[in-house]
C-alpha cells in the first residue's frame, strides 16, 4: 500500500522536498517545481540520443515526490514519519510487505488448523484436570485407607496402585475430542427429539418416567423407595449435623466478605 511505500522511502532516506527543491511548508510551489522539472526530465522532452536510465530514474523520483506532496493524506503521513520516526511495529511491514504483500491463506486450511488447535488445547486441559484431581484424591487419608483395604481383599502387592474412579468424571478418551463430542451431542439431541415427537406426540405411546428410571438403575420399585427413604433420612440428619452448621457459618462469612477461618 501507499503507507508501506512511504515507510520504505523514509527508512531509505528519500527526501521528496529535496527532490522537488521546495521547502517543507510549500503549498502550490510543489506543482510549479514539478512542472519545471518535468520540462527537463520528462521522456518526451528529452532527445532520443540523450535519454538514459539515469534520466528515467530521475523523472520517476520527481513524479513520486509530486504524488506524495500533492496528496493531503500521503503528505501528512510522510511528514509524521519524518518528524516522529517510523513506529517499531511498522518497520517490518514497511520494509517487506510492500514487496510481498499481506499473507494470504486458503479459508479451509485456516478453519482446519483452528479446529485442530482448539481441539488439542481442549483435550489437554481435560486430561490435565483429570490427572490433577486424581493426584489430589490420592493425598487424602480416606483414599489411602480404602486403597489399603482393597489391596488386602484382592491380595495385591504394596507397590500396586488402586485406580481412582469419579462419579460423573471419566478418564479422557477419543470421545472427548471436541468435534466428536459436539457431533455426539448433536446426535443425542436430534435422536431424543425425533423419538419424543414420533413416539410420544404422533403415535401416542405411553411413557412412564419412573419405570424408565428404575430400568436404568436396575432396581425394583421397592428397592428404589427404600433407597430414597434412606437418602432422605441421611439428608435430614446432615442438616442438623456439625458439618452442615459449619458449612452454613462459612457461607455466611463468605457472603459478608469475612475470612472463612
Sum up the overall morphology in one term: elongated
Percent helix, as a range, is over 70%
Return the average pLDDT rounded to an integer: 81
**Number of helical segments with 4 or more residues:** 12
Gyration radius (Cα, Å) is: 39 Å
Number of strands: 0
Strand content: under 5%
**Distance between the ends:** 63 Å
Uncertain residue ranges? none
Secondary structure category: mainly alpha
**SSE string, helices as H and strands as E:** HHHHHHHHHHHH
Describe the largest sheet. none
Layout of SSEs?
Elements lengths: L1 H10 L4 H5 L8 H13 L11 H18 L1 H13 L3 H13 L6 H31 L3 H13 L24 H25 L6 H9 L3 H19 L2 H14 L6
Question: Can you give keywords for this protein?
Answer:
12 helices; 261 residues; single chain
